């Protein structure tokens, strides 16, 4: 018999969002008259910015002519895009990240799932709890997480760092020493963000114990507060301990177009090996480059027109976040996030579990959200709503929530 990867057999049921989708589909089939408002999954709804569309059209035309046709893209990304990223996302913020430390990809989901390949089979991971599920699941598939306790919703080898209202959504440094520390700021799902000194504490700790931080900044574009860093490289010493993951999905609406990048500093060395060289080797072997037309679209995000148009889109989502935040607070809910983030994180009322509240909200007011327990054990008793819907739906959803008695 062909041996299989036994770790898949340990994985809990299905991916969180598949379970939500299945439940919503069943409800919709049973209640065809229900006007369901979906504030669950973190997908954008506004169309691509005109500057991005223009760049796509131009690049498509180039592909149709022998003189300008492009075949395989460079594995690590076209220079025009890597330079635009280095200049705008880093140099402009005083971070010394160079073009050859930037690896262009098809998005942060694949990068955040694949990056663990650089590390040993017995590396211990630490994650914020609750957290974007991909970090834990990808390590579990690689056999690093031990066994899953379904009742507790915990893996035996994962170091969970509770990130809850009790600690102001700032995790304490882990008690056991990890090899890899996943941090996401602004965080999905809590919608909260780490301040510079809070992130600096993790950087200092990682340098001290020799751990590597995997910093996911997919929601960087939503930061408004001054003391919240946009990049981990704003912290001193981060280049010797941190990898940063970025995405074009939530800042420029590329969820369907697919583009992201990862920064692996040259100064990041573990076990005598350059992680930058290892990631270049891995990328070169397993990835044949993001499409030319998509990389041109990514370049347009940094053009003056692109920047202005995208700022406008983010403002709209931010306006939705404010509507939802105020609506929930007025309806008596305890709500967090939604300031530096498109996510709102609320406490479930009356001691309901996250899934009980999911069912209640769907059946009583036909609103879909995401149960907090799906993001980790400390997410139990919380619930996530997103600001990625339309303004009208955000307002309607809050009217519905405000109108029902719990
Ligand atoms: N990282 C976080 C924290 C996310 O919430 C998401 C998507 O929801 C991603 C990464 C995935 O981004 P991408 O669309 O670039 O794959």
- What order do the strands of the largest sheet run in, or round the barrel if closed? 2-10-9-8-7-3-6
Q: How confident overall, as mean pLDDT? A: 96
What is the number of strand segments? 17
CATH superfamily of the largest domain: Type I PLP-dependent aspartate aminotransferase-like (Major domain)
Shape: globular
Q: So how many helices?
A: 12
pLDDT below 50 for ≥5 consecutive residues: which ranges? none
Q: Which structural category fits the helices and strands?
A: alpha/beta
- Reading the helices and strands in chain order gives HEHHEHEHEEEEHEEHEEEHHHEEHEEEH
What is the topology?
Blueprint: H1 16-30, E1 37-38, H2 50-63, H3 79-90, E2 102-105, H4 108-114, E3 125-129, H5 134-141, E4 148-149, E5 154-155, E6 159-162, E7 180-184, H6 196-209, E8 212-216, E9 242-247, H7 249-252, E10 260-263, E11 269-270, E12 273-274, H8 275-286, H9 292-301, H10 304-330, E13 335-337, E14 343-347, H11 354-365, E15 367-368, E16 370-371, E17 382-386, H12 391-403
Parallel strand pairs: 1-15, 3-6, 3-7, 7-8, 8-9
Antiparallel strand pairs: 2-10, 4-5, 9-10, 11-12, 13-14, 14-17, 16-17
The chain binds pyridoxal-5'-phosphate (PLP).
Residues 42, 107-109, 112, 132, 184, 188, 216, 218, 247, 249, 255, 260 line the site of pyridoxal-5'-phosphate.
């Amino acid at each position: 018999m062909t041996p299989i990867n036994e770790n898949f057999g340990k994985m809990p049921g299905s991916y969180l969002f598949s379970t939500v989708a299945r439940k919503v589909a069943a409800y919709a089939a049973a209640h065809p008259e229900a006007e369901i408002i979906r504030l669950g999954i973190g997908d954008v709804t506004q169309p691509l910015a005109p500057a991005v569309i223009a760049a796509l059209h131009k690049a498509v035309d180039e592909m149709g002519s022998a003189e300008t046709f492009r075949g395989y893209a460079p594995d690590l990304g076209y220079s025009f895009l890597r330079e635009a990223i280095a200049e705008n996302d880093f140099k402009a913020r005083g971070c010394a990240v160079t073009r050859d430390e930037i690896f262009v990809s098809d998005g942060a989901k694949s990068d955040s799932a694949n990056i663990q390949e650089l590390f040993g089979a017995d590396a211990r991971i630490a994650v914020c709890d609750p957290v974007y599920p991909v970090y834990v699941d990808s390590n579990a598939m690689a056999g690093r997480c031990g066994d899953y306790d379904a009742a507790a919703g915990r893996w035996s080898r994962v170091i969970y760092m509770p990130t809850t209202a009790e600690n102001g959504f700032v995790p304490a440094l882990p008690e056991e020493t990890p090899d890899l520390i996943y941090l996401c700021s602004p965080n999905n799902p809590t919608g909260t963000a780490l301040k510079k000194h809070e992130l600096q504490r993790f950087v200092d700790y990682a340098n001290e114990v020799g751990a590597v931080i995997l910093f996911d900044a997919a929601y960087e574009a939503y930061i408004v507060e001054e003391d919240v860093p946009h990049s981990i490289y704003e912290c001193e010493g981060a280049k010797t301990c941190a990898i940063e993951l970025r995405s074009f999905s939530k800042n420029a609406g590329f969820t369907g177009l697919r583009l992201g990048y990862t920064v692996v500093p040259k100064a990041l060395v573990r076990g005598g090996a350059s992680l930058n060289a290892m990631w270049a080797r891995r990328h070169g072997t397993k990835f044949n480059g993001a499409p030319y037309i998509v990389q041109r679209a990514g370049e347009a995000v940094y053009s003056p027109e692109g920047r202005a148009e995208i700022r406008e889109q983010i403002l709209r989502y931010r306006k939705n976040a404010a509507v939802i935040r105020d609506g929930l607070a007025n309806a008596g809910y305890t709500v967090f996030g939604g300031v530096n983030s498109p996510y709102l994180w609320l406490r479930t009322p009356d001691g309901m579990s996250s899934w009980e509240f999911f069912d209640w909200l769907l059946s009583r007011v036909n609103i879909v959200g995401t149960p907090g327990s799906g993001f980790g054990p400390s997410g139990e008793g919380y619930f996530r709503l997103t600001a990625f819907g339309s303004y009208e739906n955000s307002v309607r959803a809050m009217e519905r929530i405000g109108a029902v008695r719990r």
